[in-house]
Amino acid sequence: MDGEKTAMKYIMPEYYGEFRCLDKNCPDSCCKGWQISIDAETLKKYSNLEGPFANRLKNSVDWENGCFCQYQGSCVMLNEQGLCDIYTEAGPSMLCGTCRDYPRHREEYEGVVELSLSLSCAEAARIILEHTGPLFQRSRALRPQSGVSGARAYTGQGISYGRSAGLSGWR
């Protein structure tokens, strides 16, 4: 067991892998009505950006509180088409953890990771409420990849994170 990483047990509802963001077709917006926190790793990435979009992005961050600035109750990066300018201008790799993962929720304790979807997202709520299959959760033990930390240490083993993440291979 010297140097061997412990396997994590993942538990999730059957419908977890069905979620896909509706983007501009969503009847609501996850970019409105709440303060969007930015993780330290992404703040560092944003601070090192250069160029015209980088200047706009840097001016859109409340650096003291580690979150996006708001305009009329919405994230300042939400454009008139209902899309995120970070996503459209810089790509999904530039999204902060909050934006990349929402409405996916992760709770970790004592070697167990519980994955769920938040009812505050219209599409996630639809999936949850219309689900007709069993509501029991399935589980699978995974070992983290060497040299990778956090949730991303388990990607490639049936766990994916991001706007269009699914769970292939979990049936």
Describe the structure using short key phrases.
171 residues; two-stranded antiparallel ribbon; 21% helix
Describe the protein.
The chain has 171 residues and is of the alpha+beta class. Helix content is 21%, strand content 19%. It has 5 helices and 8 strands. It has helices at 40-47, 52-59, 85-90, 97-101, 122-130; strands at residues 8-13, 61-62, 67-68, 70-71, 74-75, 104-109, 112-117, 137-142. Strands 6-7-1-8 form a 4-stranded mixed beta sheet. A two-stranded antiparallel ribbon has the order 2-3. The longest helix has 9 residues, at 122-130. The protein is globular and about 50 Å long. It starts with 7 loop residues before the first strand and ends in a 29-residue tail after the last strand. Residues 148-171 have low confidence and may be disordered.
Question: In brief, what are we looking at here?
Answer:
This protein is of the alpha+beta class and 171 residues long.
